[in-house]
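debug: dumping io for the single-chain case to check the tokenizer round-trip. Nothing else runs in this session.
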Amino acid sequence: MQIYITKSGHQQGPYTADQLAELFQSQTITSEDMYWHEGCENWMPISQFPGYASPEKTKLPPFPSEITPLSSAVGTATPFDSTKIKRYGRNTNIGVGLGFLLAFIAGAVKSQQDSAMLGALMQFIAIVIFNWGCCNYAMKKGYHWAWGLLALLTLPGLIILMLMKNRNKGKR
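debug: decoded output
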């Protein structure tokens, strides 16, 4: 079948049905254009051509606003929950604050000649508590808890943690 179209008032063609399908897909022709083939009484809108899929009809559904990622993969976060975010923030403050305080005290204890072993144990506990706080900080920003282990890199790790984009910013 030989198909003719009018685009912007200019007749084009003839086209085969396959060629017309390519024009549909490339959006070269629009629903405002007209077509005619042998057997048609008048020119008809392209939107009435069998198999025509207008861009309006083929639009994808809106992207979901919230996706539940795989929680076991490093770098992904759980869906937004404001009560969890507040808890992560509180745990961050407790962990980091207590970790610093305990590390300071451990340093003083380690300097005592007869308390070096106790100071080392306190230092280890301070590191664990501090890293727990940093893991909560990563979760507060919308990342997997393992990102908080960057704190083990000391200052560079803390800087990276602080510079990471807050994925939960603006959510309530």
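debug: round-trip ok. The helical segments are 17-25, 82-110, 116-140, 155-163.
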